[in-house]
């Protein structure tokens, strides 16, 4: 009997004055066998009790208990017991049922019937007393307890209550023979029903584990809770997470939507759940910690199953019922535990995949998308056919190397973090920002055909140049943009146009003219843009944040090398200062010196090899490798990069090789 239950009074019907003197042999008709196999276990047990009472009309009450778990039995069928009493009967431990059997243990496990003259079974087990009028009956009571066992394990127990006159030794013998004749049929129905129930649970669990990971987690969990509600017989379910001092609903299904059920998990109960204890409240309306608004809404029973995670956090699975004294059966509780484990596995995997996806597509310093995310999103946006414009904006920070040298790397990193925060929290809705490498960034701006890209881009420039570096020093950025599909219909041409405009903007803002400035002669302009060596050297200079003077020397060196190799023709329209020609010539004289040799020379002569030399070496090797020559086909971008990487630390400067790798997307577009 559950704690706090009050004894009830049970009025037993008076037994007939006379019982049958002649009993038919316990032959089971084929029609009865067919009916037993056709329905479920409850129906089969009810029919069995009906047959028994037809043969033994003096039996006042008949009860059939069925095993529902390793140590629990539930009332599977009953005759002659008031419905109100049945509602009070709950799943009971096997020890309760076993206590009503006075025979030896071998008799219990062997399925031997036992007859006793003790008080009514319900009075023995649950304290439900017969009515006073029934106590005046002079006939002595008789209780028949018949365990049904298979392989020394009791799976069901039959209880009959009558008077000793109506339930004598002959009647007990007949009951034993009749039940033993149909017990295999009942057991088959029992096993089949158990297997079907378990199969339904396993199918639901497998469906949960095999759900497409493209579905939102909330939808997956709601489907799982709906299955748990249906299979357990509850009215609703809810998955709740303990997050520090906060209790939050993750998913819900069935009855109770909209109710503050988190309030049902009181503080003392939360402590028990965190320790891994299950909680079953059979009468929530009588529970000391009940919330009136939940009782008023109809909540009567609660079953709470904790789900503990490896990180120490706890979730709880709540099963709700509007019926008093409801609780999932012992076997169902085991299957609910399996469902809870599957829910934990799915949530853990989803969280892990989310974290891995975030890490794979996010720059850890700024919180912006990284190059991988940029490439993915750019391809998706430009493959749409909805007529929307896409504006690609490329920008980098002017003189960021000087900021590093002046204020230190920690200050510079903090500056990048603030820039990332500005772009994440102050960007227009739908715009996406990315850090491509170092101080190089990109924006993807979507909009209708009426969008003014120039105005939007200048807004971003003003936003970024409002970031203070130190004192009265503020960030300066160089921007270039191109619009898809009006200005460029392919990703490569879109990228190139935005990149060229950013290069022009940088030159204009620094108040200087590029070495090969565009002139009125279109030939000169094409020479500047279409020489692969010049373009690659300029890109490497940006990534490495070379000073303007170094970039001038690098451009002059590239031009002289192109002249020496016959790739361009000399022109009188390219005035190069004599001092710059001298510096460029010195670089070309050391062009065959490897990075390792240059380091050794630096140690001996204390003359460091200029960065211009290292950049030109890598750029020239890459251009040569990706061009076909007699007897050798042109290498792909990846093959050329791998070849150069293999020569790093020996022939080429590692920092320049790393800068070259950061240009992989641009190189493929070239």
From TrEMBL:
Residues 388-518 form the GGDEF domain. SMART domains: GGDEF. InterPro entries: Diguanylate_Cyclase, GAF, GAF-like_dom_sf, GGDEF_dom, Nucleotide_cyclase, Rev_trsase/Diguanyl_cyclase. Gene3D superfamilies: 3.30.450.40, 3.30.70.270, Hypothetical protein af1432. It holds the Pfam family GGDEF. Signal peptide: none annotated. This is GAF sensor-containing diguanylate cyclase. It comes from the Bacteria. SUPFAM superfamilies: GAF domain-like, Nucleotide cyclase.
């Amino acid at each position: 009997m559950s704690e706090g239950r009050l004894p009830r009074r049970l009025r037993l019907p008076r037994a007939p004055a006379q019982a049958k003197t002649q009993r038919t042999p316990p032959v089971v008709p084929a029609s009865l066998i067919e009916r037993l196999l056709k329905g479920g276990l409850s129906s089969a047990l009810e029919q069995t009790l009906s047959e028994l009472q037809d043969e033994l009309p003096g039996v006042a009450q008949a009860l059939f208990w069925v095993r529902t778990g390793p140590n629990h039995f539930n009332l599977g069928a009953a005759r002659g017991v008031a419905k109100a009493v049945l509602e009070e009967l709950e799943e009971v431990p096997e020890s309760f049922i076993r206590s009503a059997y006075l025979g030896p243990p071998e008799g219990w496990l062997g399925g031997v019937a036992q007859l006793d003259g003790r008080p009514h079974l319900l009075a023995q087990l649950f304290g439900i007393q017969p009515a006073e009028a029934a106590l005046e009956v002079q006939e002595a009571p008789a209780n028949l307890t018949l365990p049904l066992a298979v392989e020394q394990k009791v799976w069901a127990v039959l209880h009959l209550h009558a008077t000793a006159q109506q339930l004598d030794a002959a009647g007990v013998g007949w009951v034993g023979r009749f039940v033993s004749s149909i017990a295999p049929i009942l057991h088959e129905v029992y096993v089949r029903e158990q297997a079907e129930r378990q199969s339904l649970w396993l199918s639901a669990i497998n469906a949960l584990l095999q759900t497409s990971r493209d579905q939102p987690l909330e939808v997956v969990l709601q489907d799982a809770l709906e299955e748990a509600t249906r299979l357990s017989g509850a009215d609703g379910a809810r998955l709740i997470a303990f997050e520090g001092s906060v209790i939050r609903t993750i998913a819900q299904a069935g009855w109770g939507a909209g109710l503050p059920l988190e309030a049902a998990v009181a503080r003392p109960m939360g402590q028990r759940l965190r320790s891994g204890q299950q909680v079953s409240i059979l009468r929530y309306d009588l529970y000391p910690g009940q919330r009136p608004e939940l009782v008023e809404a109809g909540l009567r029973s609660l079953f709470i199953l904790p789900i503990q995670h490896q990180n120490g956090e706890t979730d709880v699975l709540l099963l709700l019922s509007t019926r008093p004294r409801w609780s999932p059966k012992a076997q169902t509780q085991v299957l609910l535990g399996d469902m809870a484990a599957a829910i934990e596995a799915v949530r853990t995997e989803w969280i892990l995949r989310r974290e891995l996806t975030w890490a794979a597509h996010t720059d850890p310093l700024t919180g912006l998308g990284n190059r991988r995310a940029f490439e993915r999103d750019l391809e998706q946006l430009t493959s749409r056919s909805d007529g929307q414009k896409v504006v690609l904006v490329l920008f980098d920070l002017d003189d960021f190397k000087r900021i590093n040298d002046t204020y230190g790397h920690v200050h510079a990193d903090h500056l990048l973090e603030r820039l990332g925060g500005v772009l994440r929290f102050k960007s227009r809705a739908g715009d996406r920002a990315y850090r491509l490498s170092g101080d190089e960034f990109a924006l993807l701006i979507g909009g209708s055909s009426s969008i003014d890209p120039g105005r939007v881009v200048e807004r971003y420039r003003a936003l970024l140049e409002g970031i203070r570096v130190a004192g009265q020093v503020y960030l300066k950025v160089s921007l270039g943009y191109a619009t898809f599909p009006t200005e460029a219909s392919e990703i490569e041409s879109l990228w190139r146009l935005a990149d060229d405009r950013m290069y022009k903007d940088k030159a204009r803002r620094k108040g200087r003219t590029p070495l090969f400035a565009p002139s009125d002669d279109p030939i000169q302009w094409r020479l500047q843009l279409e020489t692969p060596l010049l373009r690659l050297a300029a890109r490497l200079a940006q990534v490495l944040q070379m000073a303007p003077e170094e970039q001038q020397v690098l451009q002059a060196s590239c031009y002289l090398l192109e002249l020496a190799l016959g790739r361009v023709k000399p022109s009188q329209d390219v005035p190069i200062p004599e001092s710059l020609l001298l510096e460029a010539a010195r670089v070309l004289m050391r062009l065959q010196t490897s990075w390792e040799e240059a380091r050794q020379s630096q140690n001996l002569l204390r003359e460091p090899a200029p960065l211009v030399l290292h950049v030109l070496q890598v750029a020239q090797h890459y251009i040569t490798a990706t061009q076909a020559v007699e007897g050798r086909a042109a290498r792909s971008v990846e093959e050329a990069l791998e070849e150069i990487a293999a020569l790093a630390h020996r022939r080429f400067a590692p920092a320049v090789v790393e800068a070259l790798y950061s240009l992989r997307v641009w190189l493929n577009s070239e």
